[in-house]
Amino acid sequence: MEETFSQCENEQNCEEEKMRRKLQFFFMNPIEKWQAKKRVPYKFIVQVTKIIMVTMQLCLFAYSSYNHVNYTWDNRITFSHLFLKGWDSTREINAYPPGSGPLAIYKIDEFYSTINYAYKGYANVGDAVGSYSYANEDNTMTNMLLCLYQYKKGIIFGFNESYVFDSEIIEQCLNISVPIEGLLDSKQYLAGNKIDINFSALVSAELMFSLKTVNLKAAGRITAPNCYRFDITILFDNEDHDGQMLLSLDAVPYRLMCKGDVEYVTDNEIDTFVRSLVNYLVIIICITSFMLCSRAVWRAQQLKFITNKFFESHFEQPLSHHDRMKFLNLWYIMIIINDILIIIGSSIKEQIERKEFTSDQWNVCSLFLGVGNMLVWFGVLRYLGFFKTYNVVILTLQKAAPQVARFLICTLLIYAGFTFCGWLIFGPYHLKFRSLSTTSECLFSLINGDDMFATFSIMSAKSPLLWYFSRLYLYSFISLYIYIILSLFISVIMDAYDTIKLYYKEGFPKSSLECFIGDTNFEEVSSGIFRSSSNDSLGGLMKNLCCCKTVHKSYSSLSGISEATETCRQNVSV
Predict the structure, then answer these.
(1) Phi/psi at 147 (nearest 5 deg)?
(2) Is the peptide bond before 402 cis (omega within 30 degrees of 0)?
(3) What is the pLDDT averaged over residues 92-121?
(4) Cα–Cα distance measured from residue 413 to residue 424, given in angstroms and rounded to the nearest whole number
(5) Beta carbons of 43 and 30 less than 8 angstroms apart
(6) Pick from 38-42, 201-205, 310-314, 554-558: least confident
(7) Angle (CA) 451 453 454, round 5°
């Protein structure tokens, strides 16, 4: 009887020790795992390599994207000078407050003269400094397309306050083709084609045409020029029917395959090969990182299931929610997300550089690569967290996160109230409150002390009542958020920081899982006790829980196992 009881007790200690060692190894950092099993930290190496390659790829793409966006924007400015009547250089700079009002037309004759001006500029595009050509292969002038969008019925009799109205919008398009280059009387041309414009019913009009050009800026010994077609649209916006028809121009670039007779080193293969090589290397590294981190997340969930079963069978209580969340490594989740973003962005980048995309996909590619690269650099914090000095910051943010979230919910409700109130009351009188988004941006700037005096001074004095109310509104908002809410927000974070500092002095509170795992010192990690089961899988661990095997003799040097288990049982029962 005594031998049987002793054998069962040894088997139970063996089972608990194997479970404890498995959990200790799982929660080690890469340096400790390398010391424990002398295995290369391949996930760490992959992440470091990914940071270098992704950053190099981003720098190359950022330079190309900057040139592309600037080139297309500068062409848009050029087209505005060539085809928009009344455009001047003061409208090219975003100034606050704006240096001029919106570009608009106010008379019927101005509408027709604007079309005539655009046609004349299009017919004489050869006089432009830029090398622009027509869209036809023989460089003959293509027809301009004028589309009118009018209400089906829209007649106003202002003298007796009556009208005839049908809200259905009718689209009517016409190709403008004039045999004499540079001369167009759009009013007579439209009348000759039996098109009558009722400006009371006119919602909008679009004048569309295309030009081709070649960008030689990036041309060099190993970089070829890029060819584009710009689809230009001049928009006449009369939706408000307030006597002011807004005028704007938009130019959408499309990449074309160049046919130039050029001479380059190895026919431009060096640059193409290097860029493609970087893209494919990044994709391969991200796929490898995705697979490794996905496997780690999956195995962690398997270990959580095994540990929960172990606690239920040995301590008659499952793991708490806090302990179960310890098996979900959010750093791996973030790495998986940035891997997906970078793979998609690199694929789009490769297609852009191979000129397989005719539409403008630069912004989409920039979005994927930019966010992915940002998350990659955020992942470096995981490795800095292994050092005590840097880990204080991470633990403080982690500790303060729930309190900050609850605090922000309350402050956002107050902020929303001020936002809707300011938009409704001051929208017609204040430049910064014209829309809901600009109102929110204005209030957020005030919280950070930005441009306060301008916000006070721009308020119109058309309504004395609202002028005095604006002072009360702004003073109360600024005082509430700067002196009270921001101070409370900082105090919440400082309270979490003080708590973490106290934990470092007196010890961190331990859960039942941490109590069971215990502390692992450097001698135990380096002793080789973790190498005996280096090839064990989680499936093998489940079998070992039912049948105890011979334990490595290094385990004999460990003391206090039964006492630690008993202490953990007592803590769980409490």
Answers:
(1) -115, 130
(2) no
(3) 86
(4) 17
(5) yes
(6) 554-558
(7) 65
Q: Is the pLDDT of residue 356 over 80?
A: no
Q: What is the identity of the amino acid at 133? A: S
225/219: higher pLDDT: 225
Q: Number of C-alpha atoms within 13 angstroms, CB side, residue 188?
A: 4
Spatial CB neighbours of 60, under 8 Å, sequence gap ≥ 6: 275, 278
pLDDT greater than 90 at residue 476 = yes
Closest Cα partner for 108 from 186, 54, 216, 225? Answer: 186
Reported as type and span, the H/E element at residue 165 is: strand 162-176
Q: How far apart are alpha carbons 534 and 555 in whole angstroms? A: 15
Nearest to 174 by CA among 141, 223, 150, 208: 208
pLDDT digits (tens, 9 = 90+) for 495-519: 988 888 888 777 777 777 777 777 6
Tell me the three state secondary structure of residue 376.
Answer: helix
| Peptide bond preceding 97 in cis form (omega within 30 of 0) | yes
Give the three-state DSSP class for 176: strand
In sequence order, which residues have a C-beta less than 8 Å from that of residue 536 and are 6 or more positions away? 544
Cβ-based neighbours of 172, under 8 Å, separated by 6 or more: 147, 148, 150, 195
The residue type found at 424 is L
Residue-wise burial string across 492-503, b where 16 or more C-beta atoms lie within 10 A, e elsewhere: bbeebbeebeee
- Cα 197 to its chain centre, rounded Å, is 45
User: Who's near 260: CB < 8 A, 6+ residues apart?
Assistant: 214, 224, 225
Amino acid in the structure at residue 365: C
67-91 burial, b for 16+ CB within 10 Å, e for fewer? Answer: ebeebbeebbebbbebbbbebeeeb
The two structure tokens encoding residue 196: 């009558």
CB–CB of 419/439 below 8 Å?
A: yes
Residues counted in the chain: 574
Phi first, then psi: what are they for 298, rounded to 5°?
-65, -45
Q: Which residues of 351-374 are buried (b: 16+ CB within 10 A; e: fewer)?
A: ebbeeebeebebeebbebbbebbe
Contacts of 221 by beta carbon, 8 Å cutoff, 6+ apart: 264, 265
Q: Which of 341, 330, 350, 349 is nearest to 371 (CA)?
A: 341
Place of tokens 């540079």: 182
Query: Could you report the per-residue pLDDT of 84-104, keeping only the tens digit for each?
Result: 998 888 888 777 777 777 899
Please name the amino acid found at residue 212.
K
Write the CA distances from 510 to 397, 503, 513, 516, 568, integer angstroms. 19, 11, 8, 9, 10
